[in-house]
Fold:
Amino acid sequence: MSAVFSVRVAVAALAVLALQGSAGAQALKPFKDDLFAYPKTLSAEGMAYRVIDYREARDIDERDEVPERRVRRQYVSTGVRSVQEDLALATEAGTVRHVAVGRRSGARIITVYLHGQGGSRRQGVDDFTFGGNFNRIKNLMAGNDGLYLSPDFSDFGDKGAAEVAALLAHYAKDSPRAKIVVACGSMGGALCWKLAARPDAGRLSGLMLLGSHWDESYLKTESFRRGLPLFFAHGSRDTVFPVGRQEAFFRAILARSPSYPARFVRFETGTHGTPIRMADWRETLEWMLSQVR
Structure:
């Protein structure tokens, strides 16, 4: 074997290893993936748009020990509470009460959940409601050098957005390399869109709209222009925010920018709270991490 050929082989091998390392850096260690995997896909347009077979009898009644109140034990691991704290952060926007789970400094990824009307910071850390899905995101963050935050905020307007932004800035300072994904349930989506329109929106790595609403003004933001990853999950029988309006907004994004990093999961027969129960955190976060440079 010639010296030149040997060098070429070595360089090629190093390139492959570098690519593997880069891909591996985006991967999250699993947590109960088999239990939280999506049910059957009824139809799909690649991974961009999927219709999932949701059934209340199976996905609530069989999954929960007490329907909608307490999931069966195999779906949760409460040991994660050992790295969970209820905190109050003094900021220029006011004091922000929040629950933090995982690494509060040096985090690799920060995931934030913003509740809807009538909720509180406690909703996002309840281990047993919503089919155990909040317990799953807590364990995913704790098991992957991440941080999970579930805050209170004053309103769904500018004040609430300023409070959440101040919370993010505080933790981003202690975890400067962390990717930040904000998930918004129902009316919490108003804060997602406001955060995306702020001058400091460049720190965001993705938004998850869970049974939430649309905002056409997003199409005029720098976040849209830079391709901030968006994930929409919606129940087909949502009577609060009709699925057709959210789907139309999703289509409008792709019409403006066909390669835009956006995904939509529609839960057929699902209602308003279905996406919070059924959205696959790990699949979505890994996809978002793969989009961010």
